[in-house]
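Annex B. Sample input.
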Amino acid sequence: MQAKRPLPAMFIAAIVGIVLGYVVLEFVNAGISLVWEKIPEIWDHTPAWYVIGVLLIAAVLVYVVRRFVGDTGHSPLGGIKISPLTPKEYLGAILAILASLWGGVVLGPEVALVATGSVIGGLVAKIFNVTDTKNVKKVVGFGALGAILALFVGPILSGNMELGSTPTAIEVDQLAWAIPVAIIATVAISLARLVAALFARTTREGPHLIILIGAALIIGVTALLMQTWTGEGVIYITTSGEELITELPTLTSVSTVVAIVVLKTIAYAVSLGAGFRGGPFFPAMFIGAASGLLIALVLPNGPSISAAIVVGVIASVVATAPMKWPIVILLGIALGFLIGTWTLVPAALIGAVVARLVPRWGDRIPVSAHSG
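Annex B, continued. Sample output.
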């Protein structure tokens, strides 16, 4: 006899997941803001010793946590995976994520939320005496879904999902420029994942301190190069960068945007494969947004900045995870509408389709989802 769906448990797991997911997200963002925005305000330019020092501390902490506290997380290359977590397993996972994200590693907070929702779902299932394996997974899944939805609470309440002025009509004559935007974004993400897969093959047996330290140094050097070459803050390279997407339209220098795309892609690649913990999507979205801005600046008669950024974001999301065509189309429509308006949906669809057509080179290298 098939067990009934535990609807009350699923509902409560989702609601608690949203609330605690939002708390965790704010906690993560507060730490990032303190380390990479407020403290650096002391200096005119963030000193090299600070950038390198914070990243090296993060590398050591991640190694210690994964080796001696718990190693229940999975490589960011594996995307987002939902599975039941015990409180003890959650402790190891969240500590490694916090050390990575606060340390400036180029990964996102989405995995922290999934882990939080998963442990909530597991606890709720126990409270409601849900024992059937399939139903436990459903409760855990709803907990994780609720936590992920916490990502949209802040932007929706503040109206911060908008990227400045958006077209009042579909720019039919400019839609062709969505193709190079999507190609640049997708190629950057695909190359990053290829390099990350090569890194991950060296850490199949668990965390490797030398690899983590080497990756931290690479991230630090790219951030310092960004500051030296462009005069912009190192935070454009360190951290996942999703909070800066709405600030990208204020940049008007082509060379600065090129530096962001190239250096952020390098830092993202080593962050993905070296053994740190965090999500792969938000940094990819930032790289995609910068790719869109680049085309908008290079081609004065091309797409509006908002349209180009939307195309870059959707292309990067599609490039980050394998998706079937129906999902690609739906994602293009949804993100185009949410980030911009209905007028940006055609451009977003083009970005999604082009991204789906570009080969995912990194996936051709066999790497365990738990590698790194």
